[in-house]
């Protein structure tokens, strides 16, 4: 079994336990960790004011950054970076992809600095960056600090049942943007049945996106166990969603869109009806519902050629006509 880094929640528990004079053995037993892991964590991350979970998290992230920054860029790695930059990939996307493929773990700042060095040498890699003329800001720390998402829980903490698609009720959420950023859809996808829900919203503001999600989920809220979001600010009110629907909320790692692969793919299917070249500002709720209904009525190979409607009904007590009727009026 591979080692898994301590989460912020585990560090919080360690801080609480130390203050209550709990033994290392008991802490390790409660968290399901080796005692050596707990001992090393406390020794490495205790400051002048004792062990504090947020400080411990920050120190760990800083060490991770320094380690990745120090990674040597071999000629082969440089060729890969240049290849992907020429494909208009961002430093974040390149770093994420190289890590995903098991090539190397790099901080995106390392890649950006390589691009700047190329520019100083007369190279043109920088021309493939989206914001060539803007100052690039280093981004350290957690996604909480970058995106203003309070109490963000990483996808690593999501229960195994959600990861393996063994149950109904684990959803992925995203937004779909129209041409020239005119018009927004909220999109929701159930991982096991492939059922899709969607609705247009007036803007990408967190308040409007939150209200739309709660409205979409309300008739099916007893079939909502978890929701996994990307790291957009429009999902900053995820705690309200979780409270209203009595579910847990999680976030994919930044720049790891493949961790919500189903939602990304389903957005691609919806583009058949609302292509990227189309502004979405004038699209009506009925138009979105009709397109979603068509998607939910298509047989899917991954479902043994059942439709998402059929797969969802098979796993729940809801009637097919009720589900189809609901989907058409959302």
From TrEMBL:
List the taxonomic lineage.
unclassified sequences, metagenomes, ecological metagenomes
Gene Ontology annotations of biological process type: DNA integration; DNA transposition
Family membership: Belongs to the transposase IS30 family.
- Output one GO MF annotation: DNA binding
InterPro entries annotated for this entry? Homeodomain-like_sf (IPR009057), Integrase_cat-core (IPR001584), IS30-like_HTH (IPR025246), RNaseH-like_sf (IPR012337), RNaseH_sf (IPR036397), Transposase-Integrase (IPR051917), Transposase_IS30-like (IPR053392), Transposase_IS30_CS (IPR001598)
Q: What is this protein called?
A: Mobile element protein
Against NCBIfam families, the record matches this protein to: transpos_IS30
What SUPFAM superfamilies does UniProt report for this protein, alphabetically?
Answer: Homeodomain-like, Ribonuclease H-like
Protein keywords: DNA recombination, DNA-binding, Transposition
Task: Give a short account of what the protein does.
Answer: Required for the transposition of the insertion element.
What is the organism field in this record?
hydrothermal vent metagenome
């Amino acid at each position: 079994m591979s080692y898994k880094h301590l989460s912020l929640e585990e560090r919080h528990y360690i801080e609480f336990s130390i203050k209550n004079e709990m033994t290392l053995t008991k802490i390790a037993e409660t968290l399901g960790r080796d005692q050596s892991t707990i001992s090393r964590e406390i020794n490495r991350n205790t400051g002048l004011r004792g062990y504090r979970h947020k400080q411990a998290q920050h120190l760990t992230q800083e060490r991770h950054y320094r380690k990745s920054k120090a990674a040597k860029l071999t000629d082969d790695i440089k060729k890969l970076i240049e290849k992907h930059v020429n494909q208009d990939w961002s430093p974040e996307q390149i770093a994420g992809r190289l890590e995903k493929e098991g090539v190397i773990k790099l901080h995106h700042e390392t890649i950006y600095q390589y691009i700047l060095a190329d520019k100083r040498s007369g190279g043109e890699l920088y021309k493939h960056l989206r914001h060539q003329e803007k100052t690039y800001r280093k981004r350290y720390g957690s996604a909480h600090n970058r995106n203003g998402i309070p109490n963000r829980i990483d996808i690593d903490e999501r229960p195994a049942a959600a990861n393996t698609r063994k149950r109904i009720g684990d959803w992925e959420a995203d937004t779909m943007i129209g041409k020239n950023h005119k018009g927004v859809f909220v999109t929701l996808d159930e991982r096991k049945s492939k059922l899709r829900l969607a609705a247009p919203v007036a803007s990408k503001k967190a308040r409007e996106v939150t209200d739309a999600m709660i409205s979409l989920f309300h008739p099916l809220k007893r079939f909502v166990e978890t929701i996994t979001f990307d790291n957009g600010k429009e999902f900053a009110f995820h705690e309200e969603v979780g409270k209203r629907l009595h579910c847990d909320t999680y976030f994919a790692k930044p720049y790891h869109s493949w961790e919500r692969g189903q939602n990304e793919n389903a957005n691609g299917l919806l583009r058949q009806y609302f292509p990227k070249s189309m502004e979405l500002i004038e699209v009506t709720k009925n138009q979105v519902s009709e397109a979603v209904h068509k998607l939910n009525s298509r047989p899917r190979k991954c479902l043994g050629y059942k439709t998402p409607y059929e797969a969802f009904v098979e796993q729940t007590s809801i009637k097919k006509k009720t589900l189809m009727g609901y989907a058409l009026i959302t």
